[in-house]
Amino acid sequence: ERAFPRATLGCPVLDDLLHGGLPCGSITEIVGESGVGKTQLCLQACLSVQLPRERGGLEGSSVYIYTEGDPPVKRLCELVERRVRRQLSHGSLPPLDNVLIDCDIASPKDLWVCINQLPNVIKGSSMRMPVRLVMIDSVANVFRDVSDRPTVTELKERTSMMFRAAAVLKELADRHNLAVLVVNQVADTMQGVNEELQSSGRGVLPSLGLAWSNCVNTRIFASRTGQGLDASRKLQILFSPHLPPAACEYQIRPEGVVG
Ligand code: ATP
Ligand code: MG
């Protein structure tokens, strides 16, 4: 485990589930329906990765690729105010200066270009802390918006692009010993299939299908039952080379995701 440091998620319960946090050197995916808190987790991760090592952080900055429109900067600022300002006051730059947000992604091609620029972005980053976390929120969104009924050729191109994109991300994770977190949605039309897969213990089939599944090292499934403050939320490890299947409950509060 020492060769693959972990980046704390800023919550002991979530960190326990992941044996210390997001693993460097591999691709972790979080899958779940809209509103479960995938974006909240990303925001929290890009702040907690900045924490000093004695607090479980990597003293690193992050690149946050946001494909769903206006990035949640306001919420990020709120999280800084509510949870990390004091924790990070060890002479470092303001937390927001250590998060590079790229949100100009409208098509699979844009995402492909963006991912291919990552090696140079990471090398040439003007952020003072080295980049130790790369997040894409989300991949499903980009591919879904192309067309509802892709042709066979389009599907083949997409699959090939996904494989190549995953290879670039994995190479970056290895080279810079950084954590990659990719957000994906569960395909609504797949709900029946998912229930079957879950009850058989094989996991869920996210929007991008099985081809993408093979590109991911660790998959975490986020789910919610109930609404509002009564909602009960669960994170579940579906597969991972270094973690046993396990689950924990979590809540979303103004100060962030808590166990
Ligand atoms: P999508 O797939 O649509 O992007 P998501 O999984 O990214 O969804 P999030 O945006 O991370 O979902 O989570 C939204 C939920 O987070 C809201 O439903 C709300 O319950 C909770 N939330 C967001 N901001 C706050 C806040 N300031 N205080 C408390 N809860 C909040
Ligand atoms: Mg989101």
From TrEMBL:
Residues 3-186 form the RecA family profile domain. It holds the Pfam family Rad51. One of its GO terms (biological process) is telomere maintenance via recombination. It is found in: Nucleus. GO terms for cellular component: Rad51C-XRCC3 complex; replication fork. Keywords: ATP-binding, DNA damage, DNA repair, Nucleotide-binding, Nucleus. This is RecA family profile 1 domain-containing protein.
